[in-house]
Design brief:
The chain has 279 residues and is mainly α. It has 16 helices and no strands. The chain is elongated, with a radius of gyration of 23 Å.
Length: 279
């Protein structure tokens, strides 16, 4: 009898906890909608992690939008921002805006930058250990900035035009592309003029098209446009061959090892897709 009463009591407690949890989740969802954010996008971007408490979200939204002047849509572009500590956000914004000199507009275009640490030491929280491990693999902000500055290019111009560059690792992505283009005779200034070049896959886009442009007059000026074209348009305007012939050449070029996995076990193509897909 006592056993049955104990089971009944526990069942009632669990039922109450479920009701409270559902009520709390509904409150968090209403908070998101109250700020005119797309709840579906937010939940999808959190990859199964729960929404932070209502007070935490409201405080973070006010701090980011009113305190730093970033647009409200940054939370749809980078939902884990809702879970970052305010100190973490302030530290990254201070570094990017005051030390590097980029605008709030550039940060709004690529708010994922707020999820990185400034130095290699990880700080802040963004929905779990797995998230922080992923950010550490992709690298801290300062080494990327220092590497790009070391190339002698205008770092502010580069990030203002292509803030996604902040999401690319040095060893696994930026450096291989720079080294390849310099080996092919392109001046480093071509990356400053159109830093979107950094965001294309070395294996699937940059190397195949550069090979076809070798020896062409004005190839330096033509590079940004050729990278932006579909295979069909590129073959029609520049390559002078069929798409199938061009794709066979891509397979040959890939056999040279472009786009292999970097030291973190992540291919540069996968990193390009992850960083640039939604921006």
């Amino acid at each position: 009898m006592e056993y049955c009463e104990g089971v009944t009591f526990l069942s009632e407690i669990l039922e109450i906890l479920v009701m409270v949890s559902k009520r709390e989740l509904n409150r968090r969802g209403k908070c998101v909608k109250l700020h005119r954010l797309n709840l579906e996008k937010i939940l999808r971007g959190l990859n199964g992690h729960p929404l932070p408490p209502v007070k935490k979200m409201a405080r973070t939204i006010a701090h980011v939008c009113q305190g730093h002047g970033l647009e409200i849509r940054v939370f749809e572009r980078f939902p884990p921002l809702l879970g970052l500590s305010l100190d973490k956000i302030d530290g990254v914004v201070e570094y990017l805006v005051l030390d590097v000199g980029i605008s709030y507009k550039a940060i709004s275009r690529f708010p994922s930058a707020l999820g990185y640490s400034v130095t290699e030491k990880s700080n802040g929280n963004a929905n779990g250990k797995a998230y922080r491990r992923r950010k550490r693999r992709q690298g801290a902000l300062r080494p990327k900035i220092d590497y790009l500055k070391g190339l002698g290019i205008d770092i502010v111009r580069v990030i203002e035009r292509a803030p996604q560059v902040l999401g690319l690792s040095v060893e696994g992505n930026l450096k291989p592309k720079v080294n390849y283009l310099m080996e092919k005779g392109y001046p480093i200034k071509v990356l400053e003029r159109d830093p979107r070049i950094f965001t294309y896959s070395l294996r699937e886009r940059i190397a195949p098209r550069v090979e076809f442009l070798q020896g062409m007059e004005g190839r330096e000026r033509a590079l940004p446009r050729t990278l932006s074209l579909s295979d069909e348009k590129f073959c029609e305007e520049f390559a002078g061959c069929t798409v199938e012939e061009f794709r066979r050449s891509i397979r040959m070029i890939n056999s040279n090892g472009y786009g292999k996995r970097n030291g973190n076990g992540v291919s540069e193509d996968a990193e390009d897709r992850r960083v640039c897909a939604v921006y």
